[in-house]
Amino acid sequence: MLFLLALLPLIGAVAPALAIRLGRNAAALAAGGVTLTALLVLAGMAPAVMAGETVRASVPWIPALGLDASLFLDPLGLMFAGMILGIGLLVIIYARFYLAAADPMGRFFTYLLLFQGAMLGIVLSDNVLLLLIFWELTSLSSFLLIGFWRHSAEARQGARMALFVTGGGGLALIGGLLILGNIAGSYDLTVILQQKEAIQASPLYLPALLLILGGCFTKSAQFPFHFWLPHAMAAPTPVSAYLHSATMVKAGVFMLARLWPVLAGTEAWFLIVATTGLVTMVFAAWVALFKDDLKGLLAYSTISHLGFLTMLFGLGTPMAALVGVFHIINHATFKAALFLNAGIVDHEAGTRDLKRLGGLFGLMPIAGTLALIAGLSMAGVPPLNGFISKEMMLEEAAHTVWLGQPWVFPVLATLGATLSVAYSLRYIVHVYFGPRRDDYPKAPHDPGVGLWGPPAVLTALVVAIGLAPALFAGPLVDAVAQAVTNGAAPHVHLALWHGVTPALFMSVIAIAIGALALAMHGRLQRRVEALPLPRAKALFDAGVKGATALSRRGIDALQNGSLQRAMAALIGTAVVVGFAGFLGADYVAGERPGVPASPAAVAAWIALVTATALVVLFHRARYISLIYIGIVGLIISLAFAHLSAPDLALTQISVEVVTILLMLLALNLLPKTTPAESRPWRRVRDGALACVAGLGVGGAAWAVMTRPLDSISDYFWDNAYSGGGGTNVVNVILVDFRGFDTFGEIIVLGIAALGIFSLLESVGTGASGRRVAAWKPDTVRSPEHHPMMLVVATRLLLPLAVAVGLYIFLRGHNQPGGGFIAGLVVSIAILMQYMASGYSFADQRLRADHHSLIGAGVLIAAATGLGSLAFGAPFLTSAFDYFSLPLIGEFELATAMLFDTGVALTVIGAVMLALAQLSRVAQSAEKQPPPETLEAMDVDPSRNRPGAASTTEAGR
Q: The whole model's pTM is what?
């Protein structure tokens, strides 16, 4: 059930995208139905969790590494999942009536469900690697939600800023959690949470703590990473209410609570976390007081309350953690209600500007009543839930000593509470009270129940928890606090009245001074606006601009289009690092005896070195250097055959033929010589660097080969037949043991072919098209369009080559061969038809679509792998058996043949697609006559005319 709960929103995200075709109501019902179903699944597990049971679910993820995709539901996860789904359902209802007719509602609900699923994944994950995936998914999905109004520059910038800050923090969190898992010896949270002593005693505790807090502080908008959240207010109000009250910004607080048992209790934890929370609480409350935009005010109030929560968990005491848990619930209720209320004001009055509002209570009594209750709760006024958790926070602050100073926390916490009262009262008074205006952008009135109903539900919870906290929140708070503190939290009876305590006096002072601050708000705001205060957005923009300029200078210096410079930097760095490691260690010569070299091997080595040197010497003559490159490839193929690696030899020679032929076709349209690229001193430098690098690589190879080596090859020899059903170990490795690598490689090959297609597709247009149109042959061309001997030879060889390819394919599982080599052999045969008989002739007879061949190959390979999963085996596990037929006798069939079929089709499709594009460009450049005038084996009659100019050949 846990996996169903976690996956429902992610899978259900497609439902509103499809349902929108039936109308906006259908899309909202689809999204609401998915969320409600998940909420019911959660409710079904809630009694067991509240009774003390931890619900678990796990499936193998990477068995070889001992990693499982594990989920667990404890009271902390239950509380957050309930908020995610419960408030999510209310936001979906609200959004249905809030979004304009022009807004793509199906897309909105799809993004919302993706985010909802990512948040559920965070609070349910047991494996930290799985948690990190969901963590980054929240950043990506929130980017889509914040930037939902694509036409708005503010929304686009807010989305980019949120992604930059929270995504960067996510990278820090990845490092911190990996260190934590390394210390604990496990990546399961349930194991890590039992390793407090080992983690806090580790020298890596502080680096892990700093990295984890970097992820938490950026996600929960703590100072100085707070600036992204106010700019995220450019999102639609339902997004702001959902992301910034109960979900995304609470993810950092959730992580603090989840890791509290192993990270809290140290001086570093207290000084960093509690101090950051306190500073954020006071600073953001001060800024909120002077914001004129309703959502801006609520954004900074959210930052302040997140600082409130961070401070409580940073205090490191079980009681403070309990208060933090309680305030998470309270803040979610009143803040979501206020965000939705701000949306109502904007929707009905036409503005969120406080300077253009006032006197709305008589015009919008329902919205005004809801705002009054939720705003007073945010201010911490009794008898509402915000008052109880605020007073409990002040009680904890009153007994906290910071760096030997007992007054710092009580005073600053009271100041933060005072400012909270002031901005909360400002929201209420400056929007709903005072004289009515006659210049509202729209005629204000209460909306329908679709807009005021969701905040009314949340406001009812504000009142209910305030009046009877022990009844409506007590059991959940107690269970969650026990989960957060590993059972160390006290069992507290939540009540509205805690007696006459220091916190009560601090609360009275906060309310009184906060009301006075509101009365003096005008004068205070004028003075604040006159101060030359730095703006976080301006600092961020300047930082991004500076980093961009610095990066550009670095890129221009290293990646200026000079391959020579880039390779020099890469190889030079490798040489320095390699030789530094070698010289910094004691070298001991290997004792493994060498193998005598045969005369043939020595001759091949001399030929290889000679051909390589000739490539360097004649590299400016492109055709000649290409011939020498082919010789190098041929010698390497012979070396593979000499070293008993026939599969590698066949692959090398086939790849060599295909690439040489394609490069010859490409060079047809390029200059035949390369201009001098470097000055003599630079060539000397490059040559010296190449020699040193070659010496280093050769020395490393010698060091490895002269030492005993325990190779994994023994495993493949022992299991190729019994596990993969083949005696050709190389092929079994490719299609079974390392089949996933091969699958990735054919995908890369297909992408490369599509890249060639897209690059050459635009050659006929623009400046490149004009260059192609102006191209003229720079060498003497053959008078025959299609040389007769070549045409006859290739026609005769075609069926033979296809038969050889089929033979190599069929025998590949037990003899040298396989799908990759077979695909190359068939590609060579077809390629020769194009070269001999012309592109038009061959293309008319080969009707297969090249794109389809690539797609079919990848899909067949993927289907083969998925088939093994359907039978409970790992991806791409081979199945095989032996069969017998009359006349044929016994033979083997293996699912690896299907996978090899996919490999062969992808190879053929990739080669043919590249050839087709090169041929199309050549046809365009050579101004070929229509295909019907270019029959194969024709002879250009102009060859018999004295002095006739050479004609172009077809089929390029």
A: 0.72
